[in-house]
Amino acid sequence: MVDLVWRKWFEIGHEVIDFEHKIFFSQIHKLQCLVKESHHKDEIRRVMEEIIKYADFHFTSEENIMIDAAYPGLEAHKSIHRNLMRDLRETISSFDGGSDNAELIVTFLFRWLLEHTINEDLVISKSIKEKHLREFFRAASDQE
Ligand SMILES: [Fe+2]
Question: Rounded to two decimals, what is the model's pTM?
Fold first, then answer.
């Protein structure tokens, strides 16, 4: 079973996004504990539903951050989010009640979260930092 430990390198350097990713991570961890300790299918299903709802909220929150930052890759990132939601729903609806299957779903979720974080969300953070850098030097030169 995949080792679910939060590591510093999962962070992208944006306070709100990192905070929400940690909540996401803790939901996946909660799911893993349920799979390991109990085999109550209904409880597992309820947490899976919670994960779908949280993903939807988190993507909206992230899109609002991109809009506020005038992030140039907004539309492309939104379409990635739509595909991610589709993959998430498909995978969760494939849950057959078995613990082996649930473990595979836990591994999928963890990888699904991390791959998007490192491949796409990190770019948002970099773009926002570059914007801050430009503003910082513009403000400094205005004072001269
Ligand atoms: Fe994202």
Answer: 0.91
